[in-house]
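Exercise 7b. Backbone tokens:
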């Protein structure tokens, strides 16, 4: 991060106040301010147990019925079981306190878990499409009746898992939870696809429907996975949060009485729901730096929901080199 590298001001005798002002009263270091609710863990644990159980049902059911749709869905559920377990571990790690070695704690573990989950979805979708390509030209006979029964049980289980996550967890704001939720939804799509394929084969004996439906499901999986990967990558690259407009932040700071310039402004996301900001404020020499700082910290929190602000207040006596970023 870049917000702790500017301590030139502390060397200036002309600046008696604490130039690298880091307001700890409004600072979000307290884990009680960003702790993950126990319900998040409970929702994930229930979804993990359900998904793991259905994974075995669909795997052996796919072998018994010779259905690619069921086998691909069970492979998908294997990834989902692993991803749900990883999400649960990430959530446990995330509440560990910061240390001298890891000053931000383990919040980023959640983002990395989400990225891993998104990538595994891509791999599974690729495997499904590859297998479907080979089966399309020589589709094997499938026990469609048994296939539909097993897929229906899988669909019901997936819907229960998704409902538990929606009811007990933060599906919208927490990227880690959302990636796990997308895994479960894509499982549900796989089950729906297997049911449709089974129905077509039962009515028309058209066994190419099995790989065809599998490809359509794989494409839907790819769409959801890409959104998770893109957002996780954006966070890891220290990108500006999508909900925050940098120009508006700068304009707000510039309108504080006594502020002449705002530079070295950076806004990034530590993990879902926890944004950070660092910047330098050049103020008039006769202004009280603590007054300006208090206004800046309060505005960032109230207007942009940024509780983790590191703001360096400077006057004309402070000189430092231009920073690289």
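Sequence design result:
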């Amino acid at each position: 991060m870049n917000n702790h590298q500017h301590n030139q001001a502390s060397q200036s005798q002309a600046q008696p106040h604490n130039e690298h002002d880091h307001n700890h009263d409004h600072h979000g270091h307290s884990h009680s301010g960003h702790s993950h609710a126990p319900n998040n863990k409970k929702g994930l644990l229930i979804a993990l147990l359900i998904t793991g159980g259905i994974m075995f049902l669909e795997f052996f059911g796919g072998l018994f019925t010779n259905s690619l749709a069921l086998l691909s869905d069970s492979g998908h559920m294997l990834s989902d079981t692993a991803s749900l377990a990883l999400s649960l571990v990430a959530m446990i790690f995330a509440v560990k306190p910061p240390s001298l070695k890891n000053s931000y704690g383990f919040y980023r573990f959640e983002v990395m878990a989400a990225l891993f989950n998104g990538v595994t979805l891509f791999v599974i979708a690729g495997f499904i499409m590859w297998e479907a390509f080979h089966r399309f030209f020589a589709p094997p006979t499938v026990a469609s009746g048994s296939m539909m029964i097993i897929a229906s049980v899988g669909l019901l289980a997936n819907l229960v898992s998704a409902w538990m996550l929606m009811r007990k967890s933060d599906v919208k704001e927490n990227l880690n939870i959302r990636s796990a939720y997308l895994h479960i939804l894509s499982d549900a799509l796989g089950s729906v696809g297997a049911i449709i394929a089974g129905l077509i084969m039962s009515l028309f004996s058209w066994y190419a429907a099995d790989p065809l439906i599998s490809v359509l499901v794989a494409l839907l999986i790819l769409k959801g996975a890409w959104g998770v990967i893109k957002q996780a990558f954006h966070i890891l690259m220290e990108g500006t949060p999508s909900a925050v407009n940098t120009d508006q932040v700068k304009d707000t700071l510039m309108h504080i009485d006594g502020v002449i310039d705002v530079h070295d402004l950076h806004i990034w996301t530590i993990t879902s729901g926890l944004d950070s900001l660092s910047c330098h404020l050049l103020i008039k020499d006769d202004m009280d730096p603590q007054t300006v700082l208090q206004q800046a910290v309060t505005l960032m929190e109230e207007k942009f929901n940024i509780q983790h602000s590191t703001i360096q207040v400077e006057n004309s006596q402070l000189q430092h080199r231009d920073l690289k970023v």
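Instructor comment: The mean pLDDT is 80. The chain has eight helices and four strands.
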